[in-house]
Amino acid sequence: MSELVTGEAVALELRPAKLPSRALAVLFDLVAAVTTYTVVTVALVMSTASLDEAAQVALSIATFLLVLVGGPIAVETLSHGRSLGKLAFGLRVVRDDGGPIRFRHALVRGAIGVVEILLTFGVVACIASLVSARGRRLGDVFAGTLVVRERIPTGQAGFVPPPPPWLAGRFAALDLSAVPDGLWLAVRQYLTRMQQLDPQVSVGMAQRLAADLAARTGASVPQDLPAAAFLAAVVHERQSREARQAFGVAGFAPAEAGPRAPSAPTAYQPPPPIPSGAEAWSQASPQPNQAAQVAQTTPQSQAPVMPSAAPGRDEAPADRPSTGFAPPA
Fold first, then answer.
1. Helix 123-131 with 19-47: angle, nearest 10 deg
2. In the beta sheet, which residues pair with residue 94?
């Protein structure tokens, strides 16, 4: 990381681009520029074949200057330091104070780049970049610019380490309503980065934060407890309260104290199917042996008068439609 101070006294942390990524970006730009120069040269040769030799030489020099020198300058000026190669590899040319470059910066870089990149095949640029502490070539030194990386790999997000298990619930009675959000943010940032700090600096910062937190909550830091563990336990208690409030865990009442929960609805059971005419007939009319048993067990005086049965009464006719009606026995 390279720390730069702007005109407003703001420190900027920039990551200068290293030689491999810069070399690949320059190679990409050269391939694009040479391809364009070749296409333009062929087109000019075919269209100016009738001109004399001096005119053709002048056109070739003008094409070289416009395509290989003026092209990169125009692209860096219009894109604020991002050529095709730098765009592909996540690089950008900025001023020493971190601001975007202008035409004069791109002009100086392009003019000196003709000597240190094109005429010497990049040897001078590589040596200057290796010698420089921030990887700058001669064009960057004279133009007052710096090539930085825009795509910085993001690390894993820091998380608050949990407190020791024996501290769970120890600070459940603390009043955390008077603690400002700024102090909570400072405590969280310290807990996520305390492994990266110097041990003495880490202990001193933890003691100061613990004293501020204890003054806000009206409690005292236990003597047998490290300040970092106290901070982690209090933050864990706050997170637990917020989780209970968010998910409504605190609003649940015991079963005997609150109203009884409604029973779960029973599953829907469809009604029994309506039997067809033959089935209803066979179910409603008694069988011959059942009729004989009824006649034997029923007294003579109480025996009902049975009408004469039609032929085939015990069996439903096959041609009768199924209406679901059961005639009386």
1. 160
2. 100, 146
